[in-house]
Amino acid sequence: MPIDKQARVSAVILAAGMSKRMGAPKQLLPINGKPLLQNVLENLRQSRAAEIIVVLGASAGEIQQQIDFGGARVVINEQFELGMGTSLRPGLAAVDARSSAALIVLADQPFVSAQTFDRLIEQYEQHHPQIAIPIYKGFRGNPILLDRSVFPEVMALSGDVGCRAIFGSHIENILKVSVEDIGILLDIDTQEDLEKLRLADARGEIGAALLQMADLEDREVAGEESLSKPQLVIVGIDAFGRALMKLARVLNFSITAVDPIAAAADVPEADHVLRVLDFSKLPAAPETHIVVASRGRFDEEALEQALKTPAAYIALVANKKRVQEIRSALKSRGVSEENLGRLRAPAGIDIGAETQEEIALSVLAEIVASRGGG
After folding, report:
1. Percent helix, strand and coil across the chain, each rounded to 5?
2. pLDDT tens, 75-123?
3. Which CATH number applies to 9-185?
């Protein structure tokens, strides 16, 4: 379908979540002196979005009392307890018939700039993709833009899945849009995330903190002696990644953390921190082992690069369903069956691991076994 030079693009904010890990409606948490959802709305109002639709669910009444929606339309997802897929359906169904596409915006990402929304719209107008995804230094983020042609497929999704579930079948029609906006990677998902931003907010330093993170380059944080050790590369730093680093330090690995917003202070065990998803920048090492634990954020991109390297061990930390999705997506990108055979997924030896530390132990055990030829 031809795209008008000035396409009409709607915005759908997914704000129906239950905020289980927060213990209070995340949409109303104060950030930058106003509720989280209010920040998202105001950023979108400054963009070219032709209309704004907000999907509410949990705590809908309380949120409606405290948020100034302006001209935004509110729709209610009565099935919000079943996950994000149930919010996409009413959100997209409410999109104006004149709109040729929609931005899918997450309510817990208050730092995405109006310029980023507009850049996605502009690139959509120029290249006519079915899906447009913002990329910051190689790392995929949100929001994404969907052409109307994929609305029926997305609206058929159910349960706790997002638009990522359809990426594999649209690989040739996905446009990756480079942006200089670290906000596409910053969400507020835990009390720890909130506390960091509240401290910056109290000091009036949120803008400065974001600017500082946006200007961070990959840099070495330890000496050259690490180059003589076997290297463990961990993509995505969370509780599991930190547990893996601590155990790997005991086993005398050189550790490289790959994460767009990891500060050296957050990963004290790391010898190197890489904030660009570019494995050509990995430190030299006698042998390299790569563990992708980015929890769906940039799994495909990291593994596609990893499988082009001579790494001795490449693994994905994920459940079996996600592993199947990843294998299918990589195959559609032209990764051969032979190369896919190098991927160990789910990562780790089966030892009945449950805690993050136990899972980390199972992964390191598999690495040690692989180094011994097992």
Report:
1. 40, 20, 40
2. 999 988 887 878 999 999 999 999 999 999 999 899 999 999 999 999 9
3. 3.90.550.10
